[in-house]
Every structure is written in structure tokens, then in C-alpha cells.
Amino acid sequence: MVPSFDDLVERAAALVRPGGRALLGIAGSPGAGKTTLAERLVGRLDEVGPFRVAHVPMDGFHLADAELDRLGRRGRKGAPDTFDAAGYAALLRRLREDEEELVYAPGFERVLEQPLAGALAVPRAARLIVTEGNYLLLREDAWARARAQLDEVWFCELDEADRIRRLVARHEEFGKDHDTAVAWVLGTDQRNAELVAATRDRADLVVGPAVVGTAFDETAVGGTAVGRARERQV
């Protein structure tokens, strides 16, 4: 049976045990709706749940452009080796250990296309952490250590034509002209998408277009993950 959004809310809430903390990952290709689904899920759980929820995207662990230039990797920004995967795994371990009153996580500012250190505050009261990113199901090195900290990983997928169209629109929204956006999506982003698609069968649950498309329809496009997370903290 294809899960509904309400089913996802119930499943996510059930991960949290009395006195414990749960970490839920949402993986998927670029433009598949991971952030949109995560934000909608967090918003609903904040409304109905008896516990606080925090959203900690993987995007905060992008290497800065200056470092990508030094490494010669800026032309394929978004590939697995353009992230601080070890730092991401270490943050998830800190959140899993649940020993600190407050943990700061980096955010990602899409207008600048740069990570922002200490942008997201995760209080100890947050009993469910929702994290999302392309590479949560990779088995290589630090990515495997990150996966080990997560109770479940869901795989978010969208019809390919819709995914590409939305991804081009996102690149245009944040400054690329149309031709540059299309070239990036069909080049760098597509190589990453194919790598991610190969991890689909490792997910605990696949969230298909019926739910993901609804999430896009009901969630406003624009702004930044940092800004939306800050709004929830107020």
C-alpha cells in the first residue's frame, strides 16, 4: 500500500520512544523534494506531537567555495566529496548521544550558496531530529557512519520530468540563467542523481510522487532552510 502523508506522520512519531531521541533521515536525488517533505513533516509534527522536532539538513556540510576551489572540485559542487561527510556523521553522533543541552548545527544559505556555521540550534528538548540529504544511503566511509546514527532512512522520489523541471527552476530562482541551469542539472546534478538512485533499495521506506507532489503543492517555494528553521525556533 502506498503510504499517505498522515501515515508518514504516524510512522515518524512512532520512532520516538519514552525518554529517548530518534533520528529520521530522508534521502533522494537532487530536486526530488527532500527538503519540502522534511519541512512539511516537521511542521505537522510540531502541530500535533507531544514532543519538539528539529530539522537539520545535510546541506550545512557543503564545503565552502574557497575550499572547493583549492581542491579543484567547484565545477562539480554537490558531489559526495564536496561535503564534509565526517563532520556530518560526527554531528549526528552528538545528536544521537543526547548529552548536551544545546547543539549548534550548520545551515546552508541558498542565496549565497554557502554553508553557515552555527546557524541551527537544536535543543535537548527536541526528541525527533529530521535530517535530509542526497547521500544518506551511501555505504562509503563517513557516509556509512552517518547512516548508522539514523533509526530509519526514507527515500523520496519524484517523476523524473518533474524532478528536472523543479531543479532547473530552483537554480534559476537562486541566480543561474536558464541555459546555465539546464546545463548544470543535466550534467553535475544528473551524475549525482544517478548515484543516489542506485541507493533506493537500501531505504526503509520509499515515498513516491503521490505524496511528494502534494508536499510541493502545499509548501511555499522560496526562502532558505536556515530562515525557516529560525522561524520555528522563535
TrEMBL record:
<dbReference type="InterPro" id="IPR027417">
    <property type="entry name" value="P-loop_NTPase"/>
</dbReference>
<keyword id="KW-0808">Transferase</keyword>
<keyword id="KW-0418">Kinase</keyword>
<dbReference type="GO" id="GO:0016301">
    <property type="term" value="F:kinase activity"/>
</dbReference>
<dbReference type="InterPro" id="IPR003593">
    <property type="entry name" value="AAA+_ATPase"/>
</dbReference>
<feature type="domain" description="AAA+ ATPase">
    <location>
        <begin position="20"/>
        <end position="226"/>
    </location>
</feature>
<protein>
    <submittedName>
        <fullName>Nucleoside/nucleotide kinase family protein</fullName>
    </submittedName>
</protein>
